[in-house]
Amino acid sequence: LTTRQQEFVRHWYETLAQSESFPILSNETLSALATLTQAHPQLLIGYINKEYPSISSNTPFSHIPLRTGLDKQSPQPRDTTIPISTALSAANAHLLPATLALVEKHIATCRRPRPQTDGRRSVNTGAYRCTFGCNYATCRRFDWRRHEETHEPQEIWLCTLCAHTPTDHAFIVSRKDKFLKHAKEVHGRGWKPEEVLDLSRVDFRPRSELACGECGSLSRTWEERCRHVVGHFE
């Protein structure tokens, strides 16, 4: 946790957690702390366990595991119910309001929890596993990273040529191959797909601090996170 996040937790502990009305850290309180501090729930649990054991000793958080190593089973799903962070919205405040609204809606959809059976394939095998809890697995690093980015988009395209359509039907995706397919099928007669791609790329700035889905370690960039997570699988 950053110094500012630690200070917020300390203030919460001194003003609320020690009172008789807060004998344990509830799931609702954890979600609120994670939202207010913009910190990953697993990192908060680890920090509170270490610094304030009297509060966290009875905390029922079996559904949000703090993983300290690898096991042979698929990782448990992370708590992804936290809403779009104000930090992400602020980082993309340079976008037009209508575009920002579509981007936030798209990101919220991508981060929505998926069922364990949502592997997108009938057979999911391989060492590279989804760290967001949907049970996807593959033997190819490229496919794994592309799948991870369906949960945490790094690039976004909003079709410029479809801009005249209602916002509820705007074409917005975070996968280049899907956008090129759209451009070819819908606008292929008058435009080259690559031209539409260049015109439609959103100046999107993804969130920077991301936790490892295996051990909770925090990375500063997406590239750094991917390298770190791959180290667990290889």
Automatic annotation (TrEMBL):
Residues 128-151, 157-187, 210-232 form the C2H2-type domain. InterPro entries: Znf_C2H2_type (IPR013087). This is C2H2-type domain-containing protein.
